[in-house]
């Protein structure tokens, strides 16, 4: 500890103790973003409806519903709402005053020093005056109006209003938890990553769709083939080409040579007219080429990792001679939309020379993409397989279990892992894969792939990934991927308590889980096990909204309560702004607290307590008094 004077120590102790008495800051949980940048961005901008609630609490009785909605939209999308729209001086004055009132309200939970740090330097002084030099009887309104007038006269009103809007967004939610699956299916995971990298306080629990991107970047050829296959399946060339600068020309040339159009490989989930017929055929050919490469690479991987026990997932050697049928577990099934011309019956898992060159070229490009590198760096730095935060447990997938409810073991190189140690082991594997990314297909890379689709993965949670069957076999019974018993057990309170215990958490905590779309339409409740288990994947992913019937759950945990917000399907940013749609998400209350929770009761509060203790020890103080 640096040399401190007694008075300094006392001031610091008073400061820390007063922070402990502030209300606990609001946490916001979101999951399964799946590349849907605009919907995600909207939820972040309106803070799952909290801004609307705050505005109502300040302006009810003073502003009409319509005017409140307009003010909210100005806070969510300040540039779009204000840019190029001429406003008279008195209109600006009203707006600036309204925005300052909201800012005051939402920043009142924080210390001055925290607010000061968040203020943009160019306006710091003015803003501090506006935020703190006020009293309830409005004696200072003339003074404020003079400040607003100066801002307006200097032509800074627009910029000032935009700054305030973002400050409000920043203050309403203090900490964001992202429970995984940022990538795949939707078009713009790259834009989501850019935005997440700017969030001041965040943690990330990685999802199965995130770790395959890390695996691909780290040199797992199988993961690379998987991410390319999924991107092509959903027709997101622009993510690869424009977003990450990956040139697909060699893959395309190769695919053109060997593959025909194939309906099973046309891109899915596309808006009408988004891609021309020719473009779709071009994608279908590349999609087939990369799928076959994937199946071959996976076969090789399964052979070199006997611990994975996945021989039954190798299917290319089970094709009939004429390639019209396949034998799976002793039963023959007809094949449809087959494209096995590059599968050599003598060596079905061997890549052709062309395939090898294509995939190595793609790996090279992935690893050289600066933007992808930045995104992966951030994910690996911030991402965990589970997090413990304020006594709660957060993870994306599951704890694989046996039918009797005990944790399932995974054995690798003679060591057994289960539950918490299994998650820790996978995290180590992921970090090692990333650190050794100059080497491809290391055992760590293989473990990342296993985490994507293995039976004892904490992110997959099913017995088998039936990608092959879903492309080529009509019989739907073969598409079924059976969920681990965990998903039944998690409805039970005692089971959830046993998980909390395994992570050394006490009974007051709860588990937040993503990954499985909640079928709200069929009456599934996201609040399970008497509030011990909260499932927040409501399916932001457009492709899955048919199943869920809503557009995702988010969770809000503030000083008064914990509740889920069920979001309505989101069309697009342009449409939302045009109609200023403001259907508040439905709230599902999880827990109303019996008292207002203070910072002292949170993780931050506990670490402040340690600092206070250390300071008190420093001067031999106890209970705020100095020893004689
Ligand atoms: O519907 P798609 O995009 O083909 O994906 C299906 C695949 O995705 C998975 O459901 C995994 O993705 P989720 O994490 O979103 O569930 C696999 O089990 C399944 O084989
Ligand atoms: Mn998932």
UniProtKB/TrEMBL annotation:
Residues spanning the signal sequence: none
The alphabetized UniProt keywords are: Carbohydrate metabolism, Hydrolase, Manganese
- Single GO biological process annotation from the record: gluconeogenesis
The cofactor(s) it depends on are:
Mn(2+)
Top-tier EC class: hydrolase
Q: Write down the superkingdom of origin.
A: Bacteria
A Pfam family the protein falls into: FBPase_2
Pathway(s) this gene product operates in, as recorded in its UniProt entry:
Carbohydrate biosynthesis; gluconeogenesis
Q: What is its EC number?
A: 3.1.3.11
Which Gene Ontology MF annotations are present? Answer: fructose 1,6-bisphosphate 1-phosphatase activity
InterPro entries of this UniProt entry? Answer: FBPtase_class3, Metallo-depent_PP-like
The entry sums up its family as follows: Belongs to the FBPase class 3 family.
Q: What is this protein identified as?
A: Fructose-1,6-bisphosphatase class 3
* Species annotation: Suicoccus acidiformans
Question: Which gene produces this protein?
Answer: fbp
């Amino acid at each position: 500890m640096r040399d401190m004077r007694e008075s300094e120590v006392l001031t610091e102790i008073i400061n820390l103790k007063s922070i402990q008495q502030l209300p606990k800051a609001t946490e916001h949980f979101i999951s399964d973003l799946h590349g849907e940048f605009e919907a995600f961005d909207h939820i972040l901008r309106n803070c799952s409806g909290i801004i609307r609630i705050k505005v109502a609490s300040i302006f009810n009785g003073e502003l009409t519903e319509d005017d409140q909605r307009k003010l909210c939209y100005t806070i969510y999308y300040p540039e779009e709402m204000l840019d190029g729209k001429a406003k008279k001086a008195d209109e600006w004055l009203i707006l600036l005053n309204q925005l300052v009132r909201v800012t005051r309200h939402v920043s009142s939970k924080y210390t001055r020093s925290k607010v000061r740090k968040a203020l943009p330097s160019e306006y710091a002084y003015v803003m501090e005056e506006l935020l703190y030099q006020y009293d309830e009887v409005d004696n200072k309104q003339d003074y404020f109006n003079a400040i607003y007038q100066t801002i307006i006269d200097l032509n800074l009103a627009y910029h000032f209003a935009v700054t305030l809007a973002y400050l409000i967004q920043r203050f309403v939610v203090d900490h964001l938890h992202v429970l995984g699956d940022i990538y795949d299916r939707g078009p713009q995971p790259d834009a989501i990553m850019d935005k997440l990298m700017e969030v001041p306080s965040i943690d990330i629990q990685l999802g199965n769709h995130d770790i395959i991107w890390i695996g691909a970047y780290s040199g797992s050829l199988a993961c690379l083939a998987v991410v390319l296959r999924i991107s092509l399946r959903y027709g997101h060339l622009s993510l690869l080409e424009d977003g990450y600068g990956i040139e697909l020309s060699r893959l395309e040339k190769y695919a053109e040579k060997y593959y025909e159009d194939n309906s099973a490989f046309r891109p899915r989930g596309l808006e009408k007219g988004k891609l021309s017929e020719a473009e779709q055929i071009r994608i279908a050919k590349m999609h087939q080429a990369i799928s076959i490469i994937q199946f071959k690479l996976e076969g090789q991987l399964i052979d070199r990792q006997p611990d994975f026990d996945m021989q039954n997932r190798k299917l290319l050697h089970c094709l009939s001679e004429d390639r019209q049928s396949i034998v799976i577990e002793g039963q023959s099934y007809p094949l449809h939309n087959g494209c096995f011309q590059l599968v050599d019956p003598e060596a079905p898992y061997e890549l052709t020379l062309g395939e090898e060159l294509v995939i190595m070229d793609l790996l090279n490009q992935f690893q050289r993409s600066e933007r992808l590198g930045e995104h992966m760096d951030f994910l690996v730095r911030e991402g965990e397989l589970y997090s413990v935060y304020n006594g709660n447990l957060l993870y994306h997938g599951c704890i694989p279990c046996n039918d009797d409810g005990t944790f399932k073991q995974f054995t690798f190189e003679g060591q057994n892992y289960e539950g918490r140690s299994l998650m820790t082991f996978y995290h180590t594997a992921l970090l090692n894969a990333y650190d050794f990314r100059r080497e491809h297909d290391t055992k760590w890379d293989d473990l990342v792939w296993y985490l994507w689709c293995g039976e004892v993965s904490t992110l997959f949670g099913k017995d088998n990934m039936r990608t092959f069957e879903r492309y080529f076999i009509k019989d739907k019974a073969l598409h079924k991927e059976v969920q681990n018993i965990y998903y039944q057990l998690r409805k039970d309170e005692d089971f959830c308590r046993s998980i909390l215990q395994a992570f050394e958490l006490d009974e007051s905590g709860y588990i937040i889980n993503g990954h499985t779309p909640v079928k709200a339409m069929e009456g599934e409740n996201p609040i399970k096990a008497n509030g011990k288990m909260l499932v927040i994947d409501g399916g932001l992913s457009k492709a899955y909204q048919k199943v869920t019937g809503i557009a995702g759950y988010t969770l809000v945990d503030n000083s008064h309560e914990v509740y889920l917000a069920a979001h309505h399907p989101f069309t697009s940013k342009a449409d939302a702004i045009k109609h200023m749609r403001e259907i508040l998400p439905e709230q599902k209350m999880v827990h109303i607290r019996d008292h207002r929770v203070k910072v002292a009761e949170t993780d931050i509060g506990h670490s402040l307590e340690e600092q206070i203790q250390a300071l008190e020890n420093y001067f031999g103080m106890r209970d705020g008094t100095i020893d004689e």
